[in-house]
Amino acid sequence: MTGIYFMELCLAGLFFLVRDADGNATCTAQAIIMIVTMAFTALFHFSLDHRSGLHWLSSRPIFKELMAQTGSRGKDMGVSTKIFQSHCQDETLTSNPPVLWIPKDELGVAEDEIVHTRESYNSIGISCDGASLSAQGSLILGAQPPDWRLKGTGVGISIRNASPRHVMTATGSAPQGDRLFSFKQYVCVVTGGGTGIGLMATQALIANGARVYIVSSNREALVQTAESHRASQGGSIIPIVCDVTNKEDLMHLIGQIEKRERYGVDLLVTAAGSKGERGTAPKMDAKELQQMLFADDQMKWISTFNANVSAMYFTTVAFLPLLQKCSSDGHAKASVIVVASMSGLQSHLGGYFSYSASKAATVHLSKMMAYEFKDFNVRVNCIAPGYFPSNDKEEGTAHKCRPLKEQTQLEPAGEKKGTESEIAQGVLFLAKNRFVTGEVLNIDNGEFLRNPVH
Questions:
Q1: Which among 93, 265, 410, 437 could disulfide-bond with 322, CB atoms 3.0 to 4.6 Å apart, if both were Cys?
Q2: Residue 199 dihedral angles phi and psi, to the nearest 5°
């Protein structure tokens, strides 16, 4: 800025020096304009200093402590600038390597800048946690600057503001509790995300700051889920109508998301599915059982496997390039969570043959994909929920398809059925832990122990 002031001052002086043949000043007006311009430049510079100044911690409690320690109580501390900066300025904003703290905006410019900076400069920490811009452009600070000194730097790291028994030293990264399951800046896609298990996964992800695309052929469920979301809940929801059993629909879905998310997709949850055909009835002889089972519509078997197995497979394959984009740094950040069922792991299920067989195929297919996709740094895991009641009409009904009597026999008396929080914890764990792949997580209240595979 000093160079600009010097240039403007020199130009103003030159304009004053210009004379005509009679020795009269001819550029006085231009000189005045240049002086006014210099004044506006100084005013603009002054406003920038105040708008973009570093965030300062509250000084009053610290001043009282400093005054007591230095015997300065009652004296004017306003002149102690050096003491103020060394004790009150947040250290993370003057750290080495540098940290950038930018406000979040409604247009997503800050999020794009964060992704670009992280991809281009690994040594620079950047975040928009706790800072945002209002509709009028005012800066809103809701928290202290994020402490990026906990990123791995190869030197000893201590956790700030911790009690002595929790202070630790490490040579790698030491995640803070509030960031351990943070999904801010995450882009997630949940098929069947408007109902059942898919809706539970969606709610868990947006509650932790993710941007979630919910995909389903059930337009009504998508609209209802999107409209029920409030910005204050965190994260965001983008509904897209798509039949995942149709390859053309899938490729159209991929095209839509590619246009919006140039840096890829962090997480894919495949929760869309079908409940399959009916089961056996008690006290049947061989002839009665044969007649009932053989009467099943063969096309419904094919439809069940199409919805539960091939749709999951082709959806995951279609998203593979977008998932790989998020793991280009060599770390398996991107992952797939396949929603199967305990029915795919058990043998005594009241004869729900097509559904149970399809879910068993889903479990095995998830393990195969985990192995095949590991070279692309894409993890694949599977959750196998037990009984989770829901009000859905489409996806997720498979997890409550057994007869009520049989469900009751499998559940210990007095124990509750599964809730959204149990699904949420499983989804967040598998999505965040980059050291886990090829696993099947049973979320079943111990049901598998009471009814294992024989």
A1: 265
A2: -65, -40
For residue 337, which of 210, 226, 175 has the smallest C-alpha distance? Answer: 210
Number of domains in the chain: 3
Let me know if residue 85 belongs to a domain. no
Q: How far apart are CA 12 and CA 185, in angstroms?
A: 50
Q: Are 205 and 427 in contact (CB under 8 A)?
A: yes
- What is the C-alpha R_g of the chain? 31
Q: Which of 139, 160, 179 is the last residue of a domain?
A: 179
Place of tokens 């210009």: 18
Cis peptide bond N-terminal to 175, omega within 30: no
Distance CA 389, CA 401 (A): 10
> What letter represents residue 244's amino acid?
V
Q: Are residues 359 and 427 in the same domain?
A: yes
Residues 224, 393: contact at Cβ < 8 Å?
A: no
Q: Residue 398: phi, psi to the nearest 5?
A: -60, -25
What residues form DSSP beta bridges with 336? 268, 380
pLDDT of residue 396: 40
Quote the mean pLDDT of the chain. Answer: 76
pTM score: 0.60
pLDDT at 228: 86
Tokens 């559904």 map to which residue? Answer: 355
| Residues 338/382, Cβ–Cβ less than 8 Å | yes
> Pairing relation of β-strands 139-141 and 131-133?
antiparallel
Q: Helix 219-228 to helix 196-207 angle, to the nearest 10 degrees?
A: 30
Domain that holds residue 138: 90-179
Nearest Cα to Cα of residue 386 among 309, 318, 315, 448: 448
* Helix, strand, coil % in the chain, rounded to nearest 5: 50, 10, 40
Residue linked to tokens 């501390």:
77
Same domain, 158 and 14: no
In a domain, 54, yes or no: no
Q: Tens digits of per-residue pLDDT, 13-69?
A: 888 888 887 878 878 888 888 888 888 888 888 777 665 444 444 444 544 554 555
Q: Quick check: 313 and 289 in contact, CB under 8 A?
A: no
Distance in angstroms (rounded) separating the CA atoms of residues 118 and 65:
39
Mark whether 405 and 424 lie in a shared domain: yes
78 CB contacts (<8 Å, ≥6 apart)? none
Length reported for the chain: 454
* Locus of tokens 């009984």: 387
Peptide bond just before 145 cis, omega within 30 deg: no
Asked if 279 and 402 touch (Cβ cutoff 8 Å), the reply is yes
